[in-house]
Structure to design on (262 residues):
């Protein structure tokens, strides 16, 4: 499961580690036109995430049959420091706690990272002469993997493609204007597809946002995952994550992360 959740982050990390220098900033239009909590002025954020079915699942698969509540509390501070606590578990259960946190971390990374393009800006891209608004990573000697990025007509990031001799990833971004986004385009969906050995694994992150203290923040994230072979669905799952109890720029998050009492 986590393999596909981290697919996008692995692509970004690979590109960053292989980077030399960039001949041009092809992401400037994207950065100027897109919305993020950081651009809206968020410096300190505390919130809860509740996952549908989590409590029942843990009660059925562990000895914790008397649990009454189970959710995540997230502390986030500029420029990207954060902590995830699992609320409701008794002391101990370190492995369970670790596994639960690993489920939430990719969602926090995707929703609250300032900009997906930051780690691409040092990557040497060259224009693809065969396709409009598309750039490919300049390959180094002996490199067998490929990375390309495609923009829409407005210059906003549309697709990241990466491939190796064994698999292919395609990550697609959807953006739309919202009434509160002040003319900026808001990312509301990410689709990650992996193609390997005749199998297609697809994971869709669908993000609903609403205003919290003047900032557009997640209200609900739905993750739909499917596995197909020759267009036939082998398996599919849906997970819903609800965001509540926001504290925006109150200083609580950084204070608690520094060790102060709640």
């Amino acid at each position: 499961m986590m393999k596909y959740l981290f697919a996008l982050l692995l692509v970004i990390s690979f590109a960053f580690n292989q980077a030399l220098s960039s001949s041009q900033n092809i992401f400037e239009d994207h950065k100027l036109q897109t919305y993020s909590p950081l651009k809206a002025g968020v410096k300190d954020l505390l919130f809860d995430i509740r996952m549908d079915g989590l409590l029942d699942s843990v009660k059925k698969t562990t000895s914790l049959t008397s649990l009454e509540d189970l959710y995540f509390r997230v502390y986030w501070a500029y420029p990207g420091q954060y902590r995830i606590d699992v609320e409701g578990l008794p002391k101990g259960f370190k492995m369970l706690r670790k596994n639960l946190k690993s489920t939430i971390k990719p969602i926090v990374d995707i929703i609250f990272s300032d900009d997906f393009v930051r780690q691409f800006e040092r990557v040497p891209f060259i224009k693809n002469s065969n396709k409009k608004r598309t750039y490919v990573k300049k390959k180094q000697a002996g490199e067998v993997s490929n990375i390309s990025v495609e923009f829409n007509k407005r210059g906003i990031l549309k697709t990241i493609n990466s491939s190796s001799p064994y698999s292919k990833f395609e990550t697609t971004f959807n953006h739309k204007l919202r009434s509160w986004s002040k003319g900026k385009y808001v990312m509301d969906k990410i689709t990650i597809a992996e193609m390997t050995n005749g199998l297609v694994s697809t994971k869709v992150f669908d993000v609903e946002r609403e205003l919290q203290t003047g900032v557009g923040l997640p209200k609900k994230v739905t993750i739909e995952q499917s596995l197909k072979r020759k267009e036939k669905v082998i398996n599919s799952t849906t997970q819903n994550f609800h965001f509540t109890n926001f504290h925006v720029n109150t200083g609580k998050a950084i204070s608690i992360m520094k060790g102060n009492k709640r």
Remarks:
- The chain has one domain: 2-257.
- The longest helix spans residues 94-112.
- The chain has a mean pLDDT of 87.
- The CA atoms of residues 86 and 166 lie 37 Å apart.
